[in-house]
């Protein structure tokens, strides 16, 4: 039994796709498939049903998932604590944060947090939402900072994690200044988010709730809000962008509304952590937020 097998199992359970999970694990698909098969051989049962559409957990796999995620987190936590006791690792906080928040919200928020709880060292991992979730599930980080909406729960078990609201944001449908605001019935070229993006999940959920959503035609996709912002500035289409990211361009009128305020999406900025005990330093930071 190897830890890497559990990490692979968690990644495939989350993504439901061998190619995507292999990407997340930074291995080739054949190597990833062999490791999943090795885990199933060790357990003695099939953990996934394989179809042309992807992979879904069997009853045995679903039964094993929570324990596998918890065990992985505990093993990484044990390693962090052992290193701290041995003096080989500074008393540091480990964060995963989505790209847009890493550049816009995180620096000022951490400076404000330090006023009540001085921080000796920080390690920040910036990536898309799917990878950030995977890092928190695997115990590679203590905290996950991300945009959150009540209609779009994170892709990990709520009972295994706590969270606190640490800020707010607004997703606004924006386009380049040369374009004019149009009605929802006119066809709009959409600069969309990929499936790896947490913002994409939120925008999709909001549009699904509408009886008459805008007439959108996707012309470009990225998991990076900053890339969509650049494309919008070039006049390539409409993107739902975080106000925290696009505020300078909005203030200078380089970006303007594509749709009225009805289509804005208020979101929370939340910090997640596992329910299991963290280091004393991390627990003190959490308590003082």
Q: Mind explaining what this structure looks like?
A:
By secondary structure, the chain is α/β, with parallel strands linked by helices. The protein has three domains: 79 residues, Orthogonal Bundle (Arc Repressor Mutant, subunit A), CATH 1.10.10.10; 93 residues, Periplasmic binding protein-like II (D-Maltodextrin-Binding Protein, domain 2, 3-Layer(aba) Sandwich), CATH 3.40.190; 100 residues, Periplasmic binding protein-like II (D-Maltodextrin-Binding Protein, domain 2). Strands 3, 4, 5, 6, 9, 10 and 11 form a seven-stranded mixed beta sheet that branches. A hairpin with a 2-residue loop joins strand 1 and strand 2. The longest helix has 27 residues. The protein is globular, with a radius of gyration of 21 Å. The model has no long low-confidence stretch (mean pLDDT 89).
Structural class: alpha/beta
Query: How helix-rich are the residues, as a percent range?
Result: 40-55%
Averaging pLDDT over every residue, what do you get? 89
Count of helical regions: 11
Q: CATH architecture of the largest domain, please? A: 3-Layer(aba) Sandwich
What's the alpha carbon Rg, rounded to whole Å?
A: 21 Å
Q: Main beta sheet, described?
A: 7 strands, mixed
Low-pLDDT runs of 5+ residues are none
Instruction: Choose one word for the global shape.
Output: globular
Please trace the helix and strand order, writing H or E for each element.
HHHEEHEHHEHEEEHEHEHEEH
Kindly report the name of the CATH homologous superfamily of the largest domain: Periplasmic binding protein-like II
Query: What's the CATH class label of the largest domain?
Result: Alpha Beta
Q: End-to-end span in angstroms?
A: 39 Å
In total, how many beta strands?
Answer: 11
- Which topology of the largest domain does CATH recognise? D-Maltodextrin-Binding Protein, domain 2
Tally of separate domains = 3
| Beta-strand content bin | 25-35%
């Amino acid at each position: 039994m190897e830890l890497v097998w559990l990490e692979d199992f968690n990644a495939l359970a989350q993504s439901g796709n061998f190619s995507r999970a292999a990407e997340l694990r930074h291995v080739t698909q054949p190597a990833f498939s062999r490791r999943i098969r090795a885990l199933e051989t060790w357990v003695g049962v099939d953990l996934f049903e394989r179809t042309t559409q992807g992979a879904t957990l069997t009853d045995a796999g679903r039964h094993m998932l929570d324990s596998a995620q918890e065990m992985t987190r505990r093993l990484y936590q044990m390693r962090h604590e052992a290193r701290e006791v041995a003096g080989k690792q500074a008393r540091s906080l480990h964060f995963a944060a989505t790209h847009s928040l890493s550049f816009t919200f995180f620096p000022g928020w951490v400076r404000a947090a330090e006023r009540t709880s001085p921080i000796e060292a920080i390690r920040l991992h910036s990536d898309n939402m799917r990878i950030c979730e995977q890092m928190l599930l695997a115990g590679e980080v203590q905290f996950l900072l991300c945009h959150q909406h009540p209609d779009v729960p994170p892709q990990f078990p709520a009972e295994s994690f706590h969270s606190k609201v640490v800020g707010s944001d607004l997703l606004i449908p924006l386009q380049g200044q040369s374009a004019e605001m149009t009605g929802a019935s006119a066809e709009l070229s959409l600069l969309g988010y990929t499936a790896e993006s947490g913002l994409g999940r939120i925008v999709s959920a909001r549009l699904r709730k509408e009886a008459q959503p805008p007439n959108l035609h996707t012309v470009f996709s990225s998991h990076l809000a900053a890339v969509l912002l650049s494309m919008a500035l070039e006049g390539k289409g409409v993107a739902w962008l975080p106000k925290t990211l696009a505020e300078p361009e909005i203030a200078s009128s380089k970006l303007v509304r594509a749709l009225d305020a009805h289509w804005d999406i208020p979101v929370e900025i939340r910090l997640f952590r596992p329910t299991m005990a963290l280091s004393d330093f991390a627990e003190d930071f959490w308590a003082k937020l």
